[in-house]
Amino acid sequence: MSDTSTEQGGHGHGEAVYPYTPHHFYGAKQHFESGKLGVWLFLVTEILFFAGLFCAYTIYRAQHPEVFYWAHFYLDTKWGAVNTIVLILSSFTAAWAVRNAQLGQTTLLRANIVVTILCACVFMCVKYIEYSHKFHDGLLPARYFAPVHEVWETPDFAHKHPEAAKAAARIIAGLDARAAGAGKTALDTIEARPEALRLTPVSEGGHDAHHEKAPTDPEVLAAAAAAKESKLPDDVWLESEVKKLTPHERHPLEMAGVIRKPADGPIAFERPAKAGIFFSIYFFMTGLHGIHVAVGIGLWIWMLVIASRRKFGESYFGPIDFTALYWHLVDLIWIYLFPMLYLIH
Amino acid sequence: MSDEETRTGGTDETSSGNAGSGTADLQQEDAAQDEAGGTSAGNPDAPAEASPAGDVAAGVVMQGEVTQKDATDGDGASHQKAAFAATVLGDTLPSAVRSALAAGAAHGHGGAHGGSGHGHDAHDDEHFAHALPMTILGGVLVALVVLTVLTVAVTSVDLGSQGNFIVAMIIATIKAGLVMGYFMHLVWDSKFNVFAFLSSFLFVLLFLSMALLDRGEYQSGIDTFEADQKATAK
Fold first, then answer.
1. Residues B13, B102: one domain?
2. How far is B2 from chain A (nearest CA, A)?
3. Which of A31, A167, A325, B43 could form a cystine bridge with B31, CB 3.0-4.6 A?
4. What CATH number does the domain located at A28-142+276-342 have?
């Protein structure tokens, strides 16, 4: 008769709790703990999912640290920090929402879910701002990589290494003047490689900031004039110019892989080889993470719907708990992505 | 007799009392069986009941007998069998047998569903939620924000080419530990969940270290290839 009530956990004992524990569980607690183990195992697969990209980052940074130093000047640490704080805040409201569900505080639960969704949307908006800046600057993944501004023209580099930035501008102006003076095209210069500085960017249909803005700095103009006069061959001229640089000017450019002296060739003054790969890694890691945030927004919207339809309480709060676990994982991954991508020094 | 079936949380005293009266009933049933079986030790009590449900009653009576024996020995599977018999076969049984079974069932099995009715301990089936106190939630939030500010501040201090990265990773791991332990509730959770999650990091470490072992292996080959390409391009 009524003593076989295992399959109806809450029935006959006061309030009806939605949903009743399915018959294949011993009770509400086992139901919850099974779900929890399931979510933890899913999180394990998510960690391994991201591990592939973390591996790509690790290997590439170990092998080509100058690419990473060079590229980080193109990233805005401020937006990265904003995103980190926003996600931490959303993790807090998610954990609070779990507490609300456990205590049956429905209004507060809905409010916390709404705030979590809003924080996630702020994150996606900041991501959109960052990505659109990069697209505009020609910083695209793989073969579409064609930066409009050189690294010494970025505000971050000019702020951190002002002498090096000026020195680089001088040398480039000199190289430009020599190339123009000798009637050679960009491809004939010693930088005739895919990373060549004055190769027209693939994107923006021929827009080349370098040629468009003439240098106005008198120092730069003087250097350009002097370079044009010099009768030395290109590589000898470049080597003498680099030797004239002070350590303050030369060292940051070497760290960024701009000044390179390969063992079997002349000194080179250009972007580091395969510089675009940093942005491939950047876009894929942040993009995959962004997809996870978007999925999380969808999950939280679902939770918002059922928060009104179901009665959460101390024996039923699984859905909120599991969604919050996923959300904390998304936060965890960003906690690692932020220093790896934005705080390279 | 019939009200014994509906009792769910019988005490020992009551059940052994019923066991006593059950014995008397069983003796009657034995007599009825003997009569049905053809022996002459007649007992006028309910021969008609015994014959149509004869086989069923026989099986049940045997279980009832087992129950009676085990009532003094203690709990066991026999109680469950008795309960099963009572529930499955309940309506077909003569009330005498039903009471014997209910006695056996009530004795050991009454407590099985007691938890859902009246448990009040913290780890009960229906009261297992552990709500995080607001102080812990707020404290972890403040700690995470402070550590983020610290991470950014440390970048202005130069600690060598690898030093900055290592320090940033250590701070990130502390933040991760806080999120995992408190927000994700691992401090109070089953240790198996902790083990599963941490083992994933172990495998990631294995993955990365194995890949790093031969990271420089092919760089010379790449350099030669690219030098050849440049030479042919010129």
1. yes
2. 13
3. B43
4. 1.20.120.80
Is the confidence at residue A218, as pLDDT, over 50? yes
Q: What is the predicted pLDDT for the residue at A118?
A: 97
Is the pLDDT at A157 greater than 70? The verdict is: yes
Range of the domain at B176: 134-233
- Number of domains into which chain B is organized: 2
Q: How far apart are CA A289 and CA A298, in angstroms?
A: 14
pTM as predicted: 0.70
Nearest alpha-carbon partner for A269 in A179, A184, A158, A137:
A179
C-alpha to C-alpha distance for A295 and A186, rounded to whole angstroms: 47
Q: Phi and psi (nearest 5°) for B42?
A: -75, 145
B208:A62 CB<8 A? no
Of B57, B79, B114, the last residue of a domain is B114
One-letter-per-residue 3-state SS of A10-44? CCCCCCCCCCCCCCCCCCHHHHHHHHHHHHHHHHH
If asked whether residues B109 and B16 sit together in one domain, one would say yes
Q: Which residue of B has its CA nearest to A322?
A: B184
| Cβ A201 vs Cβ A208: under 8 Å | yes
DSSP category for residue B183:
I
Please tell me which residue of chain A has the smallest CA distance to B144: A88
Tell me the mean pLDDT in the region A78-89: 95
* A295 token code pair: 């999925």
Q: Give the closest residue to A40 by CA, choosing from A292, A328, A285, A301.
A: A328
Are B86 and B36 found together in one domain?
yes
What's residue B89's pLDDT? 55
In a domain, B126, yes or no: no
- Residue B72 domain-assigned? yes
Cβ atoms within 10 Å of A110's Cβ, excluding its own: 16
**Per-residue pLDDT band at B125 (split at 50, 70, 90):** confident
Question: B24-35: per-residue pLDDT in tens?
Answer: 444 444 444 444
* B190 and B138 within one domain: yes
Pair B11, B67 in one domain: yes
Residue found by looking up tokens 């390969």 in the block: A262
In angstroms, the Cα distances linking A285 to A214, A336, A340 are: 37, 11, 11
Q: How many CB atoms lie within 10 A of CB A67?
A: 23
Question: Where exactly does CATH 1.20.120.80 map onto chain A?
Answer: 28-142+276-342
User: Taking CB atoms and an 8 Å cutoff, what residues of chain A touch B151?
Assistant: 338-339, 343
Quote ipTM for the complex.
0.81
pLDDT tens-place string over residues A84-107: 999 999 999 999 999 999 999 999
Structure tokens at A203: 């994107």
Question: Which residues, at least 6 apart from A114, have a Cβ–Cβ distance to it below 8 Å?
Answer: A304
The two three-digit tokens of residue B102, written as one number: 């209910």
How would residue A240 be classed by pLDDT, with cut points 50, 70 and 90? confident
Q: Token match 């680099």: residue?
A: A242
Which pLDDT score is estimated for A186?
Answer: 41
